[in-house]
Amino acid sequence: GAGRPPRGQGKAGPAERTTVMLRNLPNNYTRKALLDMIDAEGFAGRYDFLYFPIDFRTHAALGYAFLNLATAKDADEFHSRINGFSGWSIPSSKVCTVGWSHPHQGLESHIARYRNSPLMHESVPDAYRPALFSAGQRVPFPPPTKRIKPPRQGTERMLV
């Protein structure tokens, strides 16, 4: 009907968007360094999910991350404050750009996306996995609903 969004657009309109994608992150950054930056910029306790992809072979960050904020208001503020950020804790000329995550929006969507992913296999180091938070503290990821296969060699970049 005329009142429905066009096909291919998720349910999350601008008012409900909570997941941002950060691009242009330093390749030698770590998840901890990114979390420290996010907290220092005033967002401590205001996010519940972070995935910071790392190349399994080179151990270098792939330069982007997905962060889910607690509310759409938090996400809008994060977008405004962090887009253009360049005050890294290590020498880097990169300037962060922040956009909206697509197609995954919201905590439940990310849990559903990753809980049965090879990324969550016991052979994958914790620092390479998506992380959940509650009130600023790391919390366990929900257990998988099926047997998780180990990641295949050579497909590390495909796991995002």
Automatic annotation (TrEMBL):
Region (Disordered) location: 139-160
Protein name: Mei2-like C-terminal RNA recognition motif domain-containing protein
Stored Pfam families: RRM_2 (PF04059)
Record CDD domains: RRM3_MEI2_EAR1_like
Start and end residues of each Mei2-like C-terminal RNA recognition motif domain: 17-112
Species of origin: Zooxanthella nutricula
Molecular function via GO: nucleic acid binding
InterPro entries documented for this protein: Mei2-like_Rrm_C, Nucleotide-bd_a/b_plait_sf, RBD_domain_sf
Gene3D superfamilies: 3.30.70.330
